[in-house]
Write a structure and sequence with these properties.
Length: about 325
């Protein structure tokens, strides 16, 4: 059977029109996603500004320690072994102060405790200012930790740990952060208190041009991102550079051939006893095409992927973050 030239041209025109329509739709979605990412990053920038101020204040306390030391209460913190014996009542305005067993110079560390007690009020003020802040803290190369709000140190902290071996410390050091500015740690952790994913923002503190400590703020991802995504039209997920799903709508997560969500809610799934982040990773999806999508977005750095084998899925669009190594992905189905 032969088609006349006008019919062939009509078919070609329809195909070009469909392709053009898809391209326009993809561009429109990317523009919209840029706005979403910008809005989220504006929230993150506010906190980056806050931690810079906090780091500067900490450096001020260290620089002025000789004049500030006589003004400090030497009995503000008393120790039972490696931890301060104050209660965990936030009304006292105190932090939990921990002096770990690997401390190389206890006398010097106790001096640091005294001259940086001014951090307590700064930590408390910042914590009260933002609902999404889980805790504010400082960890020093002397194995000294100050954490607000105070918590049950005895039953949670191993006194033999080395804080400098954790990413909330070394990501701020000279090797990993030569600019000496704020750093977002892209791999969140699960909050043991049940608030879901926790995201960390850290900033180094230098004294006499040497790294003294690293200030940190832990934030609840659910408060800053998950709630925002739920208000947006479309099926969205956010993944880190490893492909782990940090946040997302249940409909989007379940469409990617992941394990079933508890009560169709990702936060409940995260907080369940048998949660494993590896189960909710694009590269571990049961779908070959979803794994290929992860490769396309995270490794090839493309921003569009078309599904062929997954009959209920059409395509996906990706927009990377600039402040943190995350990716916003929109999943478009065929319905």
């Amino acid at each position: 059977m032969r088609f006349s030239i006008p019919v062939v041209l009509l078919i070609l025109a329809l195909l070009i029109s469909c392709d053009s329509s898809t391209s326009v739709k993809t561009r429109e979605q990317r523009i919209y996603m840029e706005r979403v990412v910008f809005t989220i990053e504006e929230e993150l920038r506010l906190l980056s500004d806050e931690i810079e101020e906090l780091a500067r204040f900490s450096e001020f306390l260290l620089e002025k320690q000789d004049s500030l030391r006589p003004l400090q209460d030497p009995n503000r913190y008393e120790f039972k072994g490696y931890y301060s014996s104050n209660s965990i009542d936030t009304l006292e305005g105190k932090s939990s102060v921990i002096l770990l067993n690997k401390c190389p110079d206890i006398a010097k560390a106790k001096n640091d405790i005294l001259v940086t007690n001014g951090l307590d009020s700064a930590f408390a003020e910042l914590y009260a200012k933002y609902d999404l802040i889980e805790q504010v803290y400082s960890n020093s190369n002397l194995q000294l930790s100050r954490v607000y709000p105070p918590y049950d140190v005895v039953n949670i902290v191993d006194p033999d740990i080395d804080v400098t071996k954790f990413n909330f410390f070394y990501e701020g050091d000279e090797e990993h952060n030569p600019s000496r500015g704020p750093v977002w740690i892209p791999e969140p952790y699960v909050d043991p208190a049940g608030r879901g994913w926790i995201l960390s923002l850290v900033h180094p503190v230098y004294y006499q041009d040497e790294l003294h400590s690293v200030i940190g703020i832990d934030l609840t991802v659910n408060d800053i991102i998950q709630g925002f995504l739920e208000e947006e039209k479309g099926n969205y997920i956010i993944v880190n550079k490893k492909g782990d799903i940090v946040a997302g709508k249940a409909t989007a997560i379940e469409a990617l051939s992941m394990p079933p969500l508890r009560n169709h809610v990702y936060l409940e799934t995260i907080n369940s006893d048998n949660f494993r982040i590896s189960d909710y990773n694009l590269f571990n999806s049961k779908s070959r095409e979803v794994r290929s999508m992860g490769q396309t977005f995270l490794m090839a750095k493309d921003n569009h992927f078309s599904f062929v084998e997954e009959s209920f899925l059409n395509d996906a669009v990706c927009k990377s973050f600039s402040a943190i190594d995350w990716y916003l992905i929109r999943i478009n189905d065929n319905y």
